[in-house]
Specification:
Blueprint: H1 6-15, E1 20-23, H2 26-33, E2 50-54, E3 62-66, H3 70-77, E4 82-85, H4 105-112, H5 128-141, E5 148-151, H6 158-167, E6 172-175, H7 177-185, H8 189-211, H9 219-237, E7 241-246, E8 249-250, E9 266-275, E10 278-279, E11 282-288, H10 293-310, H11 319-332, E12 342-346, E13 355-360, E14 372-381, E15 385-396, E16 399-402, E17 411-413
Parallel strand pairs: 1-5, 3-4, 5-6, 11-17
Antiparallel strand pairs: 1-2, 2-3, 7-9, 8-9, 9-10, 9-11, 12-13, 12-14, 14-15, 15-16
């Protein structure tokens, strides 16, 4: 099942003057088609799998898939919308003749391969030229031979783009990376569910991690306790965890990770879980024992910034307003030289948890219902520690709904 909001896609593509978009990034292919891009996509080269997203919402999405993974694409889109190309993996389907007890394995496999053209040979990995030729066939079927078509050029290797233009020279290829990001910014109900589940797993891990903290415990043991807490919650709920990550730091040098935690040390968690490829992102800061005055001063400034930004993290405001509010609040606390490029980002299904749009000074996009945003106010101070307040929010018509319930203020853990 595709997660593309076709009405939103049509509006944004028409505004950009696009007749269609072709998606080659594996994560974007899966988002558009509801099918896996396949093992050929592990090479991270354009052409392993291609999704054709027409601008008119009533026209079906189509795909070019490797033969090995075509069944998934056909199941998602229908046989008429899928063309294929070969990869390096040799396969055979002998099920139609499996009952023939007298036939050898070689005879059955020869029957399975009987429709192959003379001279058939598989490529070393996959043949992008053949994939692009199949894309051309799809475009001709749709009457898009001379159309203006967008690409996710933030993914394409230069050599692959050059080959595409050589194979399909009549197309007006343009960069649609920003348009694709804008379409993706508002999530489908399925995407929202995955992101909520991912955040819940990460928060469950936090409880076990915090329970493990005491003087002398190593950073790695705290991180492992978080991972174990996530694993326990997966076992309890049956959630489809596909990955997890953590940036846990202890002590005064945040970019060195830290060793064993001591009394007065700052402990920062920035953690996320992936459910079916969708990554959560949230963070909290603690101190073991009594916090030093500078620790409190830094955290209070970040709390003020978070509160100020959260007031406008709602429909009717721009992402840039959130950034401006948070920046001004930190300056009012005396940190006038503070400069943070972004105070958060969208969340979704990608190679990294941080995806556009960003909560940045240049981000004049409106905040819309259906967005899932990670809003954060972090700073990293060598000599004092790493600090962050971060929550994952679902934007609704009424405002922002936090995914975590853990307190945001600095907490002193028992020493």
């Amino acid at each position: 099942m595709s997660d593309v909001n076709r009405a939103r896609a049509q509006r944004l593509m028409q505004q950009a003057g696009l007749h269609a978009i072709v998606l080659s990034k594996p994560e974007s292919y899966a988002w558009a088609t509801g099918a896996p891009a396949g093992v050929a996509s592990l090479f991270r080269r354009a052409g392993a799998a291609l999704a054709l997203l027409p601008a008119p919402a009533g026209e079906p999405i189509a795909a070019v898939s490797t033969e090995l993974f075509a069944t998934h694409a056909v199941r998602a889109l229908g046989a008429a919308q899928v063309l294929t190309h070969s990869d390096w993996v040799e396969t055979a389907d002998i099920r139609p003749w499996i009952a023939d007890a007298d036939a050898s394995a070689a005879q059955l496999l020869q029957k399975a391969w009987r429709d192959r053209p003379t001279g058939f040979a598989r490529p070393a990995a996959f043949d992008a030229r053949t994939s692009f030729e199949q894309l051309g066939a799809l475009l001709r079927q749709r009457g898009l031979q001379g159309a203006r078509i967008g690409l996710d050029l933030d993914f394409w290797p230069v050599s692959d783009f050059a080959l595409l233009k050589q194979v399909l020279p009549g197309i007006d290829w343009v960069d649609a990376s920003a348009v694709i990001a804008a379409i993706k910014a508002v999530k489908s109900p399925r995407e929202i569910t995955r992101l909520k589940q991912a955040a819940a797993l990460a928060e469950a891990g936090m409880h076990q991690a915090l329970a493990s903290v005491r003087a002398g415990v190593h950073r790695d043991a705290i991180a492992q306790a978080w991972k174990q807490g996530v694993a326990d919650e997966v076992g309890r709920t049956g959630a489809k965890l596909t990955g997890q990550w953590e940036y846990t730091t202890v002590g005064p040098l945040p970019w060195q990770g830290g060793g064993a935690i001591g009394v007065g040390d700052v402990l920062k968690f920035d953690v996320g879980c992936l459910v079916e490829g969708y990554s959560s992102d949230s963070g909290r800061t603690y101190v073991l024992g009594r916090a030093r005055p500078r620790t409190r001063q830094i955290m209070q400034a970040l709390q003020d910034a978070f509160s100020a930004g959260l007031e406008v993290l709602r429909p009717g405001h721009l992402l840039s307003e959130v950034h401006a509010r948070a920046t001004r609040a930190i300056a009012r606390a005396g940190f006038t030289g503070f400069s943070r490029g972004h105070f958060g980002h969208s969340l979704g299904h990608d190679t990294f948890c941080e995806v556009p749009p960003f909560i940045a000074a240049q981000a004049h996009e409106p905040i819309e219902p259906g967005m899932v945003l990670a809003f954060e106010t972090p700073i990293y101070v060598d000599g004092e520690g790493g600090f962050i307040i971060e929550d994952q929010f679902l934007i609704t018509a009424e405002g922002a709904q936090a995914a975590w319930s853990l307190p945001r203020e600095l907490l002193e853990l028992p020493a």
